[in-house]
Amino acid sequence: MSCCLGVMFVAFLVGLGEGRRWDSRKVERKIFITWNDLRASDGGILRENGGRNNGSKIIVVDQNGKGDVRTIQGAVDLVPPYNYERVKILILPGIYREKVHIPASKPYISLIGDEDMPSKTVISWHDKASDRAADGVLGTTRTATLQVFADYFCATGITVENTVVARPGGEGMQAVAVNINGDRAVFYKCRFLGSQDTLLDDIGVHYFYQCYIQGMVDFICGNARSLYQGCVINSVGPGAIAAQHRNSPSENTGYSFVDCRITGLGKTLLGRAWGEFSRVVFAKCDISDVILPSGWSDWNILSRQKIPE
User: Fold this and answer.
1) In the UniProt record, does the keyword Chloroplast occur (predicted)?
2) Does the residue 110 lie in any domain?
3) Does 309 map to a domain?
4) CB within 8 Å of 77: residues ≥ 6 apart
5) 42 is known as an active-site residue
6) Residue 105 lies in domain
7) Mean pLDDT score of the chain, rounded to an integer?
8) What tens digit of pLDDT does each residue of 115-173 get?
9) Residue 246 domain flag
């Protein structure tokens, strides 16, 4: 991460969680998001430094059985509750057809795929809001392929998708790929694929750097305070990109998109005012003609037509 802002933001989000002061000039990215902990030998996997590196615990996920576990949830389950050290879950390439839940009691987890080819490591599921579980209708939040309620979460080099395709005007088609509710999370070179409500960026302070986010209807939504820097935002049909849910002027939440690129098919809006005081900023972004001239929607509620003073 060569960008000074990115390094400082990562130091703030992750370093504070290590229980000591950090000099942002000395933060090493490899502590959290590289493959330096492993090397391949004769088709096997060898851990460097006895499976630990820079104070981090290493868990390897491999569908072919050459790691510690075969599933990502299995790796999360190995992390003890109320853990206070960085745990790096290294995921070997493959399509992992599972839902992954990281509870609030398991902070400091990193999910690490292939930094250069995030499309090779995929977590995939297919729930939608109108689907039923044993205790009733799922609703939006429980559709998530990846649910993160823990603080100090990191991810890099992975794709998370919800394969449900929203029908125009369809009811109960919300289908979340990632639901992030923990505080101080970082996503670097990740891909989020879906249709409606792809990324439920709901609670906490989060940083998305050089990520790819795809959807159609309100596909970045929630009430977090997040910075999206150098990301590609791809719309696959008519709808809206951001639906931010700030309901009070006293809430310190909102989405900032900086140096992002907006691409896609069909005509869409930059955002819809889901909350009474929704706050979304696009700065220094490359915005293609996929965006409708009107730019924004007030959700058909006139009181939400506000601009900064």
Assistant:
1) no
2) yes
3) no
4) none
5) no
6) 4-304
7) 85
8) 889 999 999 999 999 999 999 999 999 999 999 999 999 999 999 999 999 876 678 88
9) yes
- Structure token pair of residue 306: 């506000």
Within-domain flag for 293: yes
Q: Work out the pLDDT band at 296, boundaries 50, 70, 90.
A: confident
**Burial class, 238, CB count within 10 angstroms (exposed 0-12 / middle 13-18 / buried 19+):** middle
| Contact present, 68 and 60 (Cβ < 8 Å) | yes
CA 12/CA 221 separation, integer angstroms: 24
| Bridge partners for 133 per DSSP | 136
Pairing of strands 44-47, 38-41: antiparallel
Nearest-angstrom CA–CA distance, 183 and 163: 27
Q: Which residues contact 258 (CB under 8 A, 6 or more apart)?
A: 227, 228, 229, 230, 283, 284, 285
105's tokens: 């009691």
Half-sphere exposure of 24 (CA within 13 A, CB side): 14
Q: What's the CATH number where 275 sits? A: 2.160.20.10
Report yes or no: 128 and 175 within 8 Å, Cβ to Cβ.
yes
Instruction: Return the ∠ at Cα 243 (arms to 242 and 245), rounded to 5°.
Output: 140
116 belongs to the catalytic site = no
How do residues 251-266 score in pLDDT, each as one tens digit?
999 999 999 999 998 7
Catalytic residue, candidates 218, 259, 289, 298 = 218
Q: In total, how many domains does the chain have? A: 1
